[in-house]
Amino acid sequence: MSRFFSEKYSSLVPYTPGEQPQDKKYVKLNTNESPFPVSQAVAKAVEAEAGKLQLYSDPECVQLRKEAAAVFGINDDEIIMTNGSDEVLNFAFMAFADEKNPLRFADITYGFYTVFAELNHIPYKEIPLREDFTIDLNDYLAVNETVVIANPNAPTGLELPLGAIEEIVKSNPDNVVIVDEAYIDFGGQSAVPLTKKYDNLLVTGTFSKSRSMAGARLGFGIGNPKLIADLNTVKYSTNPYNVNRLTAVAGIAALRDNDYYMNNCKIIQQNRARTTAELESLGFTVLPSKTNFVFAKSDKVSGEKLYLALKEKGILIRHFTKERICDYNRITIGTAEQMEIFVSAVKEIVG
Fold it and tell me: Taking the model in full, what pTM does it have?
C-alpha cells in the first residue's frame, strides 16, 4: 500500500472474487453464474436503450420497482434497487449496525460480511456452524444484535427452514434481521412474505444467479417502507444513480420474462440432482443443496488437489483454504453438457 493509505483501512482484508482467467477457454463452474443467456427480450431492451447513455438513469428506478413489486407480491415502496446485492448489503450494514447494534453471522458464509463490517468499523461476531454445517437456531434467538443470515447459505448450499427464520426475526424485535436470498430461486422458500408481518426483516436478493445478469450488477432489498426509506437515505448520500440505464431496462425485461428464468432454475435443479448422484456414486460427500451449486468432498483426493487437477483439464471450480472447509469444493451447476464434462474429468482423477 502507499504511504497515503488511511490507517483506518490499513488492516482491511478485501474480498477475494472467484477466478476469471483469460489464458484459455474453461468450463466455468467456480462463480455460480448462470449457464443460460438472458432472454431475447432483455437483449433487445439493452440494445434499444444504448442510444440514451448520454442521459442519467432514473435514480428512483420507478418502472423497475413497479415490475419487481408485481413479481414479488409487494408494494413498490417496499423495495430498493441497487448495484448488485453487495450494495444493498453494504447499505444495510451502514444503516442498521453500529457499536450498540453489532453484527452476528456464521463463521462459514458469504465472505463479504466480514469485509463490510471491517470497512464500516462495525463490531461483529462470527458464530460457528455445527459440525454438519447447519445453523444452531439458539445462537440467534433474542441476541439483541443485527443478525445476518445467507439463506440458503454459501458456500454450503444448506437452507434454514422458514419457520426458523421467523423465530429469529420475532425474537429480535428491536434489531434488524437481514436475510440474504441470493440463491432462493433454486428450491428455497423465500422470507419475503414475512416482511409484511415484521418491520425488522430485510430480505436481499440479486439478478446475478437465477436471472442470468451477473455482469449487469442488479440487486434489491425488500422490507417495511421505513426500512427502505433508511436505505434510500444511505443510497442518496453515496451513489444516487446507482443502477445504470442498461441494467435498469434489462431488469424490467427480465421481470416481464420471469417464466423463462424460473424454468431455467428448474433445469439447474435437475442437473444438480444428477450431478449429486454421480458424485455420491464416486464416494463423495455432497451436502444437500438448495442453490445453483453443490459443496462436496472426497476421501480419495484433497479439495486442493481436485481443484488443481480439474483446472489442468480446463475446468474451474471454487476451492476455499479456510481450515474447516479446505477438504470441500464448491461446484457451480451448469448445463447438462458441462456437468457431464465435469463428472467425466472427476472420474479420471479419482480413478
Answer: 0.96
